[in-house]
Amino acid sequence: MTLDVRPLDPSTAPEQLLADYHAMRAAVAAADSPEDPPLTYESAIGRLRTPPVGDGPCRFWVGHLDGRLAGSVRVALPEEANSGIVNVEVHVHPELRRRGVGTELLRSAMPAILDARRDTVLGLGMKPDSAGARWVDGLGFEVTHSTVMQVLLIARTPAQLWDVPAPAGYRLECWTGATPERLIDSYAAARQAIQDAPLGGTSYRATVWTPAQVRATDRELADAGAEQRVAIAVDEATDRVVGVHVIHNYPHRRESGFIYDTSVLAAHRGHGLGRAMKAAMMRWLADERPDLERILTTTATTNTHMIGINHALGYHSARTMNWVETPTARLAENWPTLGD
Ligand SMILES: CC(C)(COP(=O)(O)OP(=O)(O)OC[C@H]1O[C@@H](n2cnc3c(N)ncnc32)[C@H](O)[C@@H]1OP(=O)(O)O)[C@@H](O)C(=O)NCCC(=O)NCCS
Predict the structure, then answer these.
(1) In the chain, what is the straight-line distance between the N-terminal and C-terminal CA atoms, in Å?
(2) What domains does the chain contain, in order, with CATH numbers?
(3) Is 27 in the pocket of ligand 1 (CB under 6 A)?
(4) Residue nearest to atom 40 of ligand 1 (CA)
(5) What interhelical angle do 211-223 and 184-191 show, nearest 10?
(6) 250 Cβ below 6 A of ligand 1
(7) pTM above 0.85?
(8) pLDDT tens for residues 222-268?
(9) Residue 256 CB contacts under 8 Å (≥ 6 apart), including other chains
């Protein structure tokens, strides 16, 4: 097997290469996630050109086998709280698996992984028992965290499920885009409550939210052309933000909203604020974004409260996804020739 591996620069790649990349990724999605709608060209190429906020700088390579685009590898270097992590994603066309393509792609990316001098390599989130799970197991990765992906299909959900009033003593507010200056201090503190979300044994760390980080993320989203929608709960006694719910919507996936964070300060939990904020968001989106088809969210399988709130609002559980990682040193040791 001779795989021709070359860097892919999404901003200069010729149209045919991008079309071939999309065809490979669409085939992977259809094989491994048949429960999802087909992967569009806009979505596949948009994610190459505009990686999700927080992923950090990304590099890509594609491998050709006898002239056919067989697979790809992405190496992403997140910053701040995750500056000890390299995120690696490998995809191989389902018709070309078990020929060493995935392994050769990973081997080709090893110099970039090692050059980053980070302690831990995280793989793609993957279904238990999938081809990916078996492949990374053989490479010495371990499962560190289990999540459930839940999906809300907006047109199929009775809007009465979102008829949830604000609990007594609180009011709800919503905005699109940058965080209002008058709220930024208590908003950052309420976002910081995301640190309490269970993350299993993963080395991944939630963002540390300060007013400066809120502004930096606002800027990053604006630069990416992404829409940020926020619903908050305000404690009327203190006029401070005590709960936040944030959805991102990327221009290349206009039909899908991604829940980025939902958090409530510990002292204000148990009053129904999470459900009320999420319901308010849905009423608002149904009104202002009729083109939005679905909302996606990922939650720890142990986070029964959040999973229950989502079910009450009409979400269904689409799949379980495991997070996997390995010490960089083990990846290099397990296979000394990988970094050649
Ligand atoms: C995981 C993936 C990249 C593997 O690509 P591949 O080209 O088939 O992998 P390789 O041929 O290099 O596999 C090397 C070894 O891994 C193991 N392996 C790979 N796929 C396997 C499977 N479906 N079942 C059991 N073992 C498997 C085997 O030991 C295999 O060696 P063998 O074929 O001699 O037994 C591919 O299945 C894929 O694209 N999956 C979807 C995306 C994903 O989950 N990526 C991994 C996360 S980063």
Answers:
(1) 17
(2) 4-146+323-334 (3.40.630.30), 158-313 (3.40.630.30)
(3) no
(4) 132
(5) 90
(6) no
(7) yes
(8) 999 999 999 999 999 999 999 999 999 999 999 999 999 999 999 99
(9) 249, 292, 293, 294, 295, 296
